[in-house]
Structure formats: structure tokens, C-alpha cells
Amino acid sequence: MTGAAMAAAVALALTACQMPPPGTGAGAGLPRRVTLVQSGLSVEGPAGFCVDTASVRDTAEGGFVLLAQCTRATGGGGPALLTLSVSPPLAAPGAFAPARLAEFFATAEGRAVLSRAGRADTVRVLESRSGEGAFLLHARDTAPPPIAGLDDDYWRVLFVLDGRLMTATATGFEATPVSAGALKALLARFRIALERANPV
């Protein structure tokens, strides 16, 4: 996969990440897992997280799912939200090169892709690394969030699963701060849950 092709795939996947979900945990009895029909991908979060069914997008162009702590379904709080965007099938999934993404996200174009407002000046990449077939980054975005009360800081991991680019994100809430380490660990558990739900 060329640098330009990978940047285009990442940009498409992250555009799906920015779509404001209409839900956020309303209603009781939310499921732990949902299957995206277009991709056949099963989406499941770590223990204690449920799928916000109102947020689900499932089209030929990709998918999007938001997960919140199950306690939010009954009016309780929750320290973080998880989102997953799923790309269309990659032409050459084996050519995904996580190490190249550090260079892309260091550019104004890359930071604009990360921004909730599409503006490079709202984003600062605090930390990034590649390894184990994935690219992990910690960023701060000062653009207005799609859901009131979301924190500016988030952790995001990009990896390939079943021939598609997965973009998983963990974001805390201003009212219930979560340490960077705890949010990073939550995101790692999310990736593990996704891989277990979709064995190769």
C-alpha cells in the first residue's frame, strides 16, 4: 500500500469516526454485541460496555458503532465512550504499514483528519507509536465535541481486521476524568474484545 493510498484509507475511516452519534446510551436493555451485516464484523466492547444501537451505521462504505458503559442505559454515568469505525475492504490489507502513520499525522493534513472540526490547528498529537500490527496515538482536540461533556483528550488505535481498517477510539468525560494510562488500557481491552469476537 503506497503512502498516498494508506493516507486516503485512514482519512476515510476517521471521517466515519467524526460522525455525531444520535444516541449515547438512551433506553434500557442495550446489547453487549452487534453484527455489522455489510462486513460480517461482530462488535463487542470490554466487560461492562454495551452497544448504543442508535449510533450504528452499516453501509457498503463502512461502519460505525458507539459503545458506552451499560450503566448509562439506566441513567447512570460512565467514565468513557468507545467508538469503532470500519473501512470498506482494503485492496491490499497485508500492505498496511503502521509505522508510516506517524509521519502522516505529523502533517497538517493528518492533524486535520484527526480533528472533530477538520482543522489541523485544533489537534495536538501527544504520543504515538507503532507495533504489533497497529498504530496507537494519544491526541488532544480542542474543537467542540459531538457529544456534550466529552474530554479533549483521546486514545486511538488503527489496525487491520478481516481485511478492513479498524479505527477504535476511547474518550473520557470532563466530569469524570480518567487518567491517560487507564484510557489507554481500556482501548487495549477494546481491541482484544474485537479480535476475540472475530477470530481469524
From TrEMBL:
Domain of life per record: Bacteria
Keywords in alphabetical order: Signal
Signal peptide: 1-16
Keyword flag Signal: yes
Keyword Signal among record annotations: yes
Name of the protein: Cation transport ATPase
Origin species: Celeribacter indicus
Lineage, opening ranks: Bacteria, Pseudomonadati, Pseudomonadota, Alphaproteobacteria, Rhodobacterales
